[in-house]
Amino acid sequence: MSKTTKTPQTRNIPTLTGAEIVWATLTGEGVTTVFGYPGGAILPVYDALRKFPIHHVLVRHEQGASHMADGYARASGKVGVAIATSGPGATNLVTGIATAMLDSIPIVCITGNVSSKILGTDAFQEVDITGITLPVTKHNFLINRAEEIAPAIRYAFQIAQSGRPGPVLVDITKDAQQGTAIFDFAAAKPRPHRPHPMLNVDEHGLAQAAELIRNAKRPVILAGHGVMESGAEEQVRTLAERAQIPVALTLLGLGGFPASHPLNLGMMGMHGESWVNHAIQEADLLIACGMRFDDRVTGSTSTYATKAKKIHIEVDPSEINKNIKVDVALLGDLRAVLEELLPRISGRGARDGSAWIKTIESSKGAVAVRDIKNLPDSGHLYAAHVIHDIWRITGGNAIVVTDVGQHQMWEAQYYHHEKPRTLITSGGLGTMGFALPAAIGAKFACPDREVWVIAGDGGFQMTACELSTIAQEGIKINIAIINNGYLGMVRQWQEFFYERNYEATPLISPDFVKLAEAHGIQGCAVRTRGEVEAAVNAARSAPGTFLLNFLVEKEDSVYPMIPAGSALHEMIRRPGKDPLVESADDK
């Protein structure tokens, strides 16, 4: 039993062990689920867990824990929490931490470390995890006293969520976990977050931006992940509708603007729609909303949108002029900035964009491949068939968690996201093995939502061990493996740029259905288009997790594609007639 201390205000303040303080602080922050793996240096924390109302999900590999925390955060908008022991337990978190860092995802990772008395002696399972993670965290802490634990964890939550979100690591020595301290949750509250001094939208900048919007003839809004992180979906939509500006989206921005909206152009960039990339290159104004001009978006920066003035609305000052020089920078939270900007372009400030929109529409041709209701069955099973049919059957209402590769791009092209936080994918780091554990995190965040994994046969095998986590937790997830027998995107690059030298990309996989059955999970293989609908419906109606192994065309490629270093408009098109559907985009 913990001791209590009475303050002058007659509050009962308990004295807890450091291990108990970890859970008490997480409980106070509203955490109900954590993802982790025990070990010697974190064992006091695990011993104390039984006293607190937090559900611990036992992962099969610590990388899975950080991905699950990431998926939880992306699906819920809350902070995800991962826990691991010292040494290899902590280092196994690093790929997931880096994934969260590059995509601005708020997670807090708590690790144990050896006793402070032997730090620096190369003790068993000792590693300088704060030094290792310094480049891939917003901040990290090394805690060696019990009284420092609550303030550090509370500060970690504040840092993870404030400004541009990101991961924070709290490393706690074993003696700090075993020591005792007074626990006062309220007193451990960090000082209010101090905004960056540059985050002050000035009247001159707002006036400049409004003037550019009023005078533009060919404007395009570029909507990125920051739209959802800021909760600015309504403001971006109002801007687009009021000024009749078409909207192009980054991969991580998909869902931030409804796919069915007439002003939605689709995804931009390396595998974006041709008409989107051409519209950006022909635009006279780009309004970048919560996006960072990543190289996969811009292609060659020297040839990127050279005709356009550029407005960049961004919460992170370091992103301004980092990749693309802009004419007007509006620094601050996207939603707050747009709420200040919108009144300046109302009424007479609104512009007639019909001619520009018609120009873009005409560039799509008579038929746009992504808009075909039912892709024809050519006798071959293509990934596009599978993803399009999953979208059609789910009504676009599922949370889709993808791995990284060709299937990721096909998902972005053929699954039309109407709502925010319905596409969860690794963008900046491009982490294979992300999908399965991140989907587990998403399911815990949104237990009543339909969750689909779409993964390649290569990436799925990297974290397939988490099928055991699914079985132990008894959760319901639908898994679609796009199995083409290759490391597909690498093979595509070898086809295009390395004379079809398919070195180290042909891939032998286990029988995924039998692998699922070994975990007590149902599954089936699908080889033809005619089998897809029944298989998807079987997965959806099954009471538990269901795995579908789609044996698709082996040497299919994602089109369009911009070669690395090329201009945005220099796209490789599908050669000859598209076996899926003939389109003006492919002529």
Characteristic terms for this protein:
587 residues; alpha/beta; 6-stranded parallel beta sheet; disordered C terminus
Largest β sheet strand count, sense and barrel closure:
6 strands, parallel
How does the helix and strand content classify structurally? alpha/beta
Termini separation comes to 75 Å
What is the share of helical residues?
25-40%
Strand-residue proportion: 15-25%
Average pLDDT taken over every residue: 93
What this model shows, in words?
Helix 17 (406-414) links the parallel strand 16 and strand 17. With 587 residues, this protein is of the alpha/beta class. The strands form four sheets. The chain has a six-stranded parallel beta sheet with strand order 4-3-5-6-8-7, with helices on both faces. Strands 12-11-10-13-14-15 form a six-stranded parallel beta sheet, sandwiched between helices. A six-stranded parallel beta sheet has the order 17-16-18-19-21-20, with helices on both faces. The model is unreliable at 581-587 (pLDDT under 50). The chain has 23 helices and 21 strands.
